[in-house]
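Q: How would the structure tokens look for this protein?
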Amino acid sequence: MTALTLSTAGAATLRADALVVGVAKGAGSKSGDLVLAPGAEAVDKAFGGKLAAVLATLGASGAEGELTKVPAPEGLKTPVVIAAGLGAAPEKDGSYDAEALRRAAGAAARSLTGSKKAGFALPIASVEDAEAIAEGALLGAYAFTAYQAGENKLAPKGAKAGGAKQALAEVAVLGAKPRDKAFKAAAERAIALAEEINRARDLVNTPPNDLYPESFAAVATAAGKEHGIKVQVLDEKALVKGGFGGILGVGQGAARGPRLVKLAYTHPKAERTLALVGKGITYDSGGISLKPAGHNETMKCDMAGAAAVFATVVAAARIGLRVNVTGWLALAENMPSGTATRPGDVLRMYSGKTVEVLNTDAEGRLVLADALTRASEENPDAIVDVATLTGAMVLALGNRTFGIMSNDDAFRTSIHEIAEEVGEASWPMPLPADLRKGMDSPTADIANMGERMGGGLVAGLFLKEFVGEGIAWAHLDIAGPAFHEGAPYGYTPKGGTGSAVRTLVKLAERTAAGDLG
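A: Here is the predicted structure in token form.
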């Protein structure tokens, strides 16, 4: 993991492999001019006051995501200066948007793979700005190299090392106040949050031959011991005894059995409890309703919801939030075999309801239903489930935005506002009552499929059936942003992204403060 320091050095005196400064598009009548952001003053002085002109000559515009590298002149202790675009310069108070800072820091850190140390002299007008820069840099520096030569412990003996460059080793944030308690706390929060998001990314990126229900449960157990979190693992026998028909039904076709993992972080002064439920399909073939060719290759990511829940609980423990956070990981492999659930089978769920399975590729809602019922038994103040649940949500919102559904409009609004605040794109979605009729079954209490149009909303309505009476509940469908198949951008890598973790951690903080919405 990349190290983080709040440096007392100035931009001109810091010894590092590179120095990152911010540039923006000018406002008003000079909108075409390149503007140096606060923090770049010493660097500009070393360039004889011509840094902006040099960058403009090289084509820099200040646009978000843009990076321009120039050799450093005499007077700086770093060989390279990187100008990171921040978008439009602020017109009023001079403060840059936290997400713009986060993305700029992330893009710069990503470009410095293989470097030992980089200084970040981006504009800091508040503690929040320093935290955003630190968070973005730590997330942008992420690299998944576990299966590349020199890193893979399972690689054959004699395999050549050095197959992958290491992530940026150290991030030094300039302009913060290292001795200030608020800045120290912000740095510690950024480290804990980024490390757990990156752990979630690792889990999502791990191939399914190594990450399956039992091994995922082992990772959770080890983390629980390290961070004082109580972990309970229900294996196949315990699931049968408990009557968890949804989880068992999905997992019965696989050679590796399913698990239900409970992680409980408790604070001695907590007054509220937040329950989180994550879909953990460690590989989704579709089961008997087999996915077509071209749709299987990324299905190791179908446990991203469980990874997000796991990361959130650990982050809450590391930060020491004054709230109880319980995570439920519903883990299974969805495989076709002679023992697999068939379309037309009826499962008896943990709640006692029966479900007619019309499509075995609509399996996530089955494991979530059991976990939602079990979580409801503990009467938390609120429940949020997180899942890569439907392709329909991707069609509706694209690859970067997750949908939010809820049985409580105010709760849904709160989560949407929190997501926007922390820089995660989301959108509130309805749960139209008329779509419920499509799941009526002549055989069972409910079918696991309904109308094709509005399929993401139908899935939400199905889950709602398994939430305890009177409990505020929200469903986050992260099918789009959980796994990024395109080129990296900002602090977002190719592959697992850690989607929803920042939203959930902030929600836990708001819950601790008594502000659930």
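The first strand starts at residue 3 and ends at 7.

The two ends are 35 Å apart (CA to CA).

Upvote if useful.
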